[in-house]
Amino acid sequence: MVLSNTLPLSVASSNLALFSDQLNDLAARFHQVLNTNQDDLAAAVKNIESSSQIVKSLLSDLQAGKGLAGRMLRNDELSAGASQLVSNLNVLSSNLNRHGLLWRPKKTEARRPSPLYPGRDPWR
């Protein structure tokens, strides 16, 4: 059994040694990249931390009802007004798209029937 599996065990051990060597090379390169970019990585982490603090501050102000968005969350009347404004803007943009900027609806005047001619109005 040992003699029949000698070649596969030899290949497996050489593959394991090659993999180990490549893994050591990868670790050395990764260590070099970390050393080279250490300052940039530290600055990126600090930026993420400061951004996180800003987002926390914005969310706490929003929950407290500060600013327009906070007031809209707290005040139902203001929220309904903003919703109506968006609805009106939607209708406006639809009408502008359909008719153009300078379109005016035609005025139709209601004509009174002529007392001299009791039949059908010829102007209609």
Descriptors for this entry?
124 residues; mainly alpha; elongated
Task: Describe the structure concisely.
By secondary structure, the chain is an all-alpha fold. It has helices at residues 6-36, 38-64, 67-74, 76-99.
What can you tell me about this protein's structure?
- The protein has 124 residues and is mainly alpha-helical.
- It contains four helices and no strands.
- The protein is elongated.
Give a topology summary.
Elements: H1 6-36, H2 38-64, H3 67-74, H4 76-99
The secondary-structure element order is HHHH
Major pleated sheet: none
What is the mean predicted local confidence, pLDDT? Answer: 86
Provide the low-confidence segments as ranges: none
Distance between the termini: 111 Å
Radius of gyration (Å): 39 Å
- Helical amount: over 70%
Count of separate DSSP helical elements = 4
Q: Indicate the structural class.
A: mainly alpha
Note the overall shape: elongated
What proportion strand?
A: under 5%
Number of distinct beta strands: 0
